[in-house]
Design brief:
This protein is of the alpha/beta class and 193 residues long. 31% of the residues lie in helices and 20% in strands. The radius of gyration is 16 Å and the shape is globular.
Length: 193
């Protein structure tokens, strides 16, 4: 419940209302407002007219990752996925307009690895997005033997965030990045829950 209040999420009767902040919620500029359908609509995310520019959602995680010198950051496709991961102790961001809207300039002052965890069906787009970061961009897939749409689906089906990082992500990324991640877990910089 604390995340809902902190981020100032809302409900308009049909959609979740998701403010997009420049960095820290309530302490920085409001860049836009995203809507996430509450039903089974094919169009799950949309923007409010006049505030739907492409930008980085949860830029606070980028700043924290940089300040803590983690050396890595997760990129998911969906504001609620990124927020749930952040709440779970995983530094995660999302481009507001989904796959292929990622702009490498948003990460200019972050030299760490960008690990993209795509939604089911967006694997090709994730490879293209990772290519924008050259040798610092990686794609790590959710378990393929399970029918999982995205990070939120992974969590709501009873899987733990620790399992995702330790059992799924670590084996798919370069050894040096995996060592940084193991160290961050050991020092409780991520996954404190």
């Amino acid at each position: 419940y604390g995340t809902v209040l902190r981020q100032m999420f809302g409900w308009d009767g049909r959609n979740y209302v998701i403010p997009v902040w420049e960095s820290t919620p309530r302490k920085s500029a409001l860049l836009g407002v995203r809507l996430r359908s509450g039903g089974d609509s094919l169009i799950r995310y949309s923007g409010v007219k006049g505030s739907n520019d492409k930008t980085l959602y949860n830029a606070e995680a980028l700043q924290v990752s940089k300040k803590a010198d983690l050396g890595f950051l997760f990129v998911l496709y969906g504001e609620l996925d990124a927020q749930l991961a952040w709440q779970d102790g995983i530094p995660a961001v999302s481009p507001t307009n989904g796959a292929l809207s990622l702009d490498a300039k948003w990460f200019d002052d972050f030299d760490g690895e960008k690990i993209i965890i795509p939604d089911k069906g967006e694997e090709r787009a994730a490879l293209e997005d990772a290519g924008k970061f050259g040798s610092k961009g990686w794609v790590a897939h959710l378990p393929r033997n399970k029918v999982l749409k995205d990070y939120t689906d992974f969590r709501t089906k009873g899987h733990r965030s620790k399992d995702l990082v330790r059992d799924v992500i670590l084996p798919q990324i370069p050894v040096l990045t995996a060592e940084k991640m193991r160290k961050a877990i050991q020092e409780s910089l991520i996954l404190q829950a």
